[in-house]
């Protein structure tokens, strides 16, 4: 294989990850961008906030397979129904807890996620943990930085060790 072919292959995988990242951000976004939203939660919601700590969430291939199936099904359902698309994809960034609640309130999204074997929390957490790990890995490959505090180092290792399989799952999830 020539270096040009290798570069094209890398660019294709990078493009797939970038498309998946954009779609993932449409489905949910980082909690740490919520700023003032934390004050909106009552004291008894502190446990719920701990439940969305992505830095402690651990990815595995079973979760990624389920996530891929759910992502494809949500994408296909949204493509045929603009009302559903608006219900499951926020227009801007939102806290993880709000993303989870938004999916929990939609019966169709719940059914799709359940059929894939995931809860709304698992879907949002897997999406966010995967994209944070991928972004950290990409940054660590180009700069001499460590794993950011909001990223589980085990997830970065998981992404590195399973990149080829994950890329295949992403290709299936986002193919037309």
Q: Can you lay out the helices and strands and say which pair or pack?
A:
Layout: H1 3-27, H2 46-50, H3 61-79, H4 82-88, H5 96-105, H6 107-116, H7 120-142, H8 153-161, H9 163-174
Helix pairs in contact: 1-7, 1-9, 3-4, 3-6, 3-7, 3-9, 5-7, 7-8
Give structural notes.
- The chain has 176 residues and is mainly alpha-helical.
- The protein is 68% helix and 0% strand.
- It has nine helices and no strands.
- It has helices at 3-27, 46-50, 61-79, 82-88, 96-105, 107-116, 120-142, 153-161, 163-174.
- Helix 3 (61-79) runs antiparallel to helix 6 (107-116).
- The longest helix is centred in the first third of the chain and has 25 residues, at 3-27.
- The protein is globular and about 45 Å long.
- It starts with a helix and ends with a helix.
- The model is unreliable at 1-12 and 18-44 (pLDDT under 50).
What is the gist of this entry?
With about 180 residues, the protein is mainly α.
Secondary-structure content class: mainly alpha
Total strands: 0
> Major β-sheet, in short?
none
Taken in chain order, the helices and strands follow as HHHHHHHHH
Please tally the helical runs, counting DSSP H or I stretches of 4 or more residues: 9
Helix content: 55-70%
Q: Spans with pLDDT under 50 lasting ≥5 residues?
A: 1-12, 18-44
Distance between the termini: 28 Å
Beta-strand percent range: under 5%
Judging from the principal axes of the Cα atoms, what is the shape? globular
User: How confident is the prediction overall: mean pLDDT?
Assistant: 78
Radius of gyration, in Å, reads 17 Å
